[in-house]
Write a structure and sequence with these properties.
The complex is a heterodimer of chains A (about 400) and B (about 550).
Chain A lengths: L10 H7 L2 H22 L35 H6 L6 E6 L11 H7 L2 E6 L3 H10 L8 E6 L3 H6 L3 E2 L22 E13 L25 E4 L5 H28 L3 E3 L2 H8 L9 E5 L2 H7 L10 E3 L5 E10 L5 H12 L1 H4 L2 H5 L2 E2 L8 H6 L11 H19 L2
Parallel strand pairs in A: 1-2, 1-3, 6-7, 6-8
Antiparallel strand pairs in A: 3-10, 4-10, 5-8, 5-9, 5-10, 5-11
Helix pairs in contact in A: 7-14
Chain B lengths: L4 H36 L4 H7 L1 H34 L5 H13 L2 H14 L15 H24 L5 H8 L4 H29 L3 H5 L8 H11 L3 H28 L18 H30 E2 L2 E2 L2 H5 L12 H32 L2 H12 L6 H11 L13 H24 L2 H9 L4 H30 L2 H6 L7 H9 L4 H28 L8
Antiparallel strand pairs in B: 1-2
Classes of the chains: A alpha/beta (about 400), B mainly alpha (about 550).
């Protein structure tokens, strides 16, 4: 399409040149390929020899601490009450699963004079990576949506400013997983096995725990998400590591693979398509303890009982946190927003929008949620520092075992 | 303008015109991408990553799947291009509009539709049958569905201008039809073939959603690995090294394609499109069906699945999903899905406007500003097509943070990012038309007393004005469907249709899934309508797309 009318090359000449075309094509294609093969042909043994650098100035003893090298001065709760925040705008950056009722921040604005502006980015991993990238010069004032599995990566990279909200008195202590109050717990959810009630009408036929999934009875029945691309997928990998330990989890996954495991890229694909929300090819899926609530709430046609059940054993607990971003121009207004996120008004709005539970013990659960939720008595958990230290190694090994 | 003033004016004119696209590209592409790569790179990290054996395998698979997808797309697209360009079919405009719909649909929607299609035809491996799902074949097939429009439109647009008399003469002299196709048509079509193949390759090279959703796990490409290292691992060193690898490959590729395009130019295009031939015989009718069938089936089947799913309500069918699009409540969005449609239209209009201004000026530079600068700009404008959305998205966040360019939380950043993808399309539809302007018309205008600027505006302007609209609508349609960069930059209270769709699909509940499918259908319809509008605006004698 580049024939120029003013081209000095007459038609006849270009015709005689045409035979050069294929040869040139080959040469150029070869060039493209060579550019790539150069990398492959060197004699460097394997990438294991040079592990990818960990985030945020990690030291050799990776698991040691989630505290940044320089801990910023904490925002003083007393100063928050005294600050004149009227007319400021606070930016709240979250992941793309964040959801609230309409106008949830109106009461906060009426109360404090602070406007809230929402920003969003990709998934939780993208949110954390973006905040690490912009640490000290943040895109927003408050971040919501960093969870147990990413906690250490964010806190260690110096993304947050400490703040101990007075509202934490109503929050169970074991949910405060971040050191030095760098992050404030806002909600808690459990990643659990779900099963189709159509496939297992009798709950006693459904798997009772992780070990059952390798049984012949559940061959070709289980679909989970790739831990490299999906948050519940990674949480489930952690559940197996918490259950079988560093020595045993790899063998467990080999057995799972033997038994016909399917892996999808995203929760949507696994839950909605392969599991078909209880009607698909696969009858067991990695999802959330709250999935039956959503199943009833958005059922089409409406029904009163969920079509899916939850395996209450072997659930991995994910706490989601909010934090004041270091470098904010409005630390007091940001702290006031954290207080609001912990207030019953916001906490009670969480369950039916994000399908996780509030951390504030004074917050009442909506009746719809209460009716269909599964309480997980003994959730599994791992230390955030251990998760950060093991994360890349585990997912690398997982990929080798399950996908190769 | 005085005779004496002209040389100075002329010396300054091209830099002045060129400065707009050059500055745009420098500020919104080179600067952000350079910043993010500069941030990620540490001593030796690039060499370290490039030397890994896995990097070689990664690049090999990425190039291989893109090349195979391109060959397949050309094979299916060429016969359809012929039929659309050469045969006087009823509803040609509708056909040309229809093939473009999957091209702009979010990969999530097409991916879901493809999977459903595999299931319907038993190609998902159930029952021991042939298994397409989660294989590399599924990737190739999905790329085919997405990109067949590029071949049909780019090659078809050019084909309509090829003088058929040379081929007819060869036939009279006894050449077989195959011989004519090989020795007469193919060589003259070559520039358009390379142009189309280059674009398809770039899209497949940087394809993201298709690789993750249809290809199944465990088939990473350079693009998906950049995303994984940057977003999931927070390992910017590896991501930056891979981004450099991607950029280098894309630059080499764009250079190669450009060279091939020019080397194969024959100047054989007619000044006006050749009128398509009537279908007279049954044999010809069969040929047309055979030529169009595969391309059409590939485009229509996923669309039918999408529409069918959007109408599925409970155990029957109905319009409830569409009615729900107007409601704000209980959808996990912050707005009614229809608001996302309004946002998308607004962003797309802005992106198209930016693309037209920047791309229009760039086209003038490409055609008139001398070979080297023109070619360099043409090439540079193609590179964003082959750059990963993560690199650009993170780069913009990092680079554009100082006043007066503190754009990272501004709404303006979305259309700017989308325009980067639209500009090459504007350039590619405008440049052929500009080149086709007969210099004698300008001379005639000068003889009649018009100044050179006036002559250029009056003559070129008339032609380009119309083709710019074609490019504008193309840019408009592309930004309607853009997801990658937008998902980094769009605000939750102002989602675009693809972003809203993604959020609807990301939540449990059949109802929201139905709404997502309805929203996807609305997007498909919007796209078809905007493309039909393109076809209306399209002058009969315009070259290009």
């Amino acid at each position: 399409m580049s024939t120029s009318p003013s081209s000095p090359m007459p038609v006849a000449v270009s015709r005689t040149r045409r035979p050069a075309g294929p040869a040139r094509t080959g040469a150029l294609l070869a060039l493209v390929l060579v550019a790539g093969l150069l990398g492959a042909c060197t004699d460097d043994p394997e990438e294991a020899a040079s592990p990818p650098p960990a985030a945020g100035g990690a030291s050799a003893d990776g698991a040691a601490s989630c505290t940044p090298d320089d801990l910023p001065t904490a925002v003083d709760p007393a100063a928050v009450d005294d600050a004149d925040t009227d007319g400021t705008t606070v930016k709240l950056v979250t992941h793309d699963s964040f959801a609230t009722s309409d106008g949830i921040f109106d009461a906060f604005t009426a109360d404090t004079g602070i406007e809230v502006e929402l920003l969003t980015t990709g998934d939780a991993g993208t949110l954390v990576s973006q905040s690490v990238l912009t640490a000290g010069e943040p895109v927003a004032d408050v971040l919501f949506g960093i969870d147990t599995t990413f906690l250490c990566r964010g806190t260690r990279a110096g993304v947050f400013t400490p703040y101990e909200s007075p509202a934490l008195v109503d929050v169970p202590d074991d949910l405060e997983q971040a050191p030095d109050h760098l992050l404030t717990p806002i909600d808690v959810g459990d990643v659990c096995l779900n099963y189709s009630k159509a496939a297992f009408p009798d709950a006693s036929d459904a798997p009772a725990g992780l070990a059952d999934l390798t049984e012949p009875a559940f061959a070709d029945a289980f679909v989970t998400e790739n831990p490299e691309t999906s948050s519940p997928g990674f949480a489930f990998l952690l559940a197996t590591i918490a259950t079988f330990g560093e020595e045993g989890w790899e063998a467990y996954w080999e057995d799972l693979r033997e038994n016909g495991l399917e892996v999808d890229a995203s929760w949507d694909q696994a839950y909605n398509e392969t599991f078909g929300a209880g009607t698909g090819d696969r009858s067991i899926v990695t999802s959330y303890a709250s999935s039956p609530v959503a199943d009833v709430l958005y059922a089409d046609p409406p029904r009163s009982e969920p079509a899916i059940g939850v395996v209450p054993d072997a659930c991995f607990r994910q706490v989601e946190f909010a934090g004041i971003l270091r470098g904010t121009d409005h630390p007091e207004a940001a702290a006031a927003l954290i207080d609001f996120l912990l207030s019953p008004a916001f906490q009670e709005d969480i369950p039916l929008n994000m399908f996780v539970e509030p951390v504030n013990e004074r917050a009442a659960l909506p009746a719809d949620f209460e009716a269909h939720r599964t309480t997980i008595a003994n959730p599994l958990t791992l230390d955030p520092a251990a998760i950060e230290a093991g994360r890349d190694r585990w997912t690398e090994r997982w990929t080798e075992i399950v996908l190769r | 303008m005085t005779a004496r003033g002209r040389p100075a004016w002329r010396r300054l004119a091209w830099p002045a015109v060129a400065s707009v696209p050059v500055l745009f590209l420098a500020l919104f592409f080179a600067f952000p991408v350079g910043t993010i790569i500069g941030r990620g790179i540490t001593d030796g990290s690039v060499l370290d990553v490039l030397r890994r054996r896995s990097t070689g395998q990664l690049l090999w698979f990425t190039v291989w799947q893109a090349a195979a997808s391109t060959v397949l797309t050309m094979a299916v697209g060429l016969p359809a291009a012929w039929a659309v360009a050469r045969v006087d079919l009823p509803g040609r405009r509708l056909l040309r509009a229809l093939v473009l719909v999957p091209f702009v649909l979010p990969t999530l929607v097409v991916g879901a539709a493809l999977r459903a299609t595999f299931e319907r035809f038993g190609l998902d491996g159930s029952g021991g049958g042939l298994r397409l799902q989660d294989t590399v074949w599924a990737i190739l097939l999905a790329h085919l569905v997405f990109n067949v429009a590029v071949v049909v439109r780019v090659v078809g647009g050019y084909w309509a201008f090829l003088d058929p008399r040379a081929g007819e003469a060869a036939r009279v002299l006894g050449a077989s039809r195959w011989r004519v196709a090989r020795s007469v048509v193919a060589p003259r079509l070559a520039p358009a073939l390379w142009s189309a193949a280059g674009i398809v390759f770039l899209f497949c090279f940087t394809s993201f959603g298709v690789i993750l959703t249809v290809g199944g796990p465990g088939r990473p490409t350079v693009e998906t690995e950049i995303w994984r290292y940057a977003t999931q691992r927070t390992d910017f060193a590896t991501a930056a090294a891979l981004a450099i690898l991607q950029l280098a490959t894309v630059v080499v590729l764009v250079l190669a394609v450009n060279l091939l395009e020019r080397r194969t130019s024959t100047g054989a295009a007619a000044r006006r499109p050749v009128p398509p031939a009537r279908v007279r015989s049954w044999r010809r009718r069969l040929e047309v069906v055979a030529a169009l069938g595969p391309a059409l089936a590939l485009v229509v089947v996923p669309l039918v699945v999408l529409v069918e799913r959007s109408l599925a309500v409970g155990d029957g069918h109905g319009l409830a999903n569409y009615r729900a699009l107007g409601r704000t409540t209980d959808n996990g969005l912050f707005v009614a899905p229809l608001t996302a449609v309004a946002n998308s239209l607004l962003y797309a209009a802005a992106a198209a406007a930016v693309a037209v201004v920047v791309g229009g000026l760039a086209s003038v530079v490409v055609v008139h500003a001398g070979r080297r600068p023109g070619r360099a700009l043409d090439l540079a404008l193609m590179v964003p097509l082959g750059t990963s959305a993560v690199t650009l998205g993170f780069g913009m966040l990092l680079a554009l943070d100082e006043p007066p360019l503190d754009l990272r939380s501004s709404r303006a950043i979305v259309p700017i990012a989308q325009a980067l993808v639209g500009i090459p399309f504007v350039v590619r539809s405008t440049v052929p038309a500009l080149r086709a302007v007969d210099p004698r018309q300008r001379e005639a205008a000068s003889v009649l007393g018009a100044s050179p600027v006036r002559a250029r505006l009056a003559v070129d302007g008339a032609v380009v004005g119309r083709t710019l609209l074609v490019g504008a609508a193309f840019a408009f349609a592309i930004s309607l469907g853009e997801f990658g960069a937008t998902s980094f930059l769009a605000r939750p209270d102002a989602p675009t249709v693809p972003v809203a769709l993604f959020r609807l699909l990301g939540q449990p509940g059949a109802e929201l899934r139905g709404q997502a499918m309805a929203l996807g259908t609305v997007l498909a319809a919007l796209t078809a309508v905007s493309v039909l509008v393109i076809e209306r605006l399209r002058p009969r004698d315009a070259l290009g797309w």
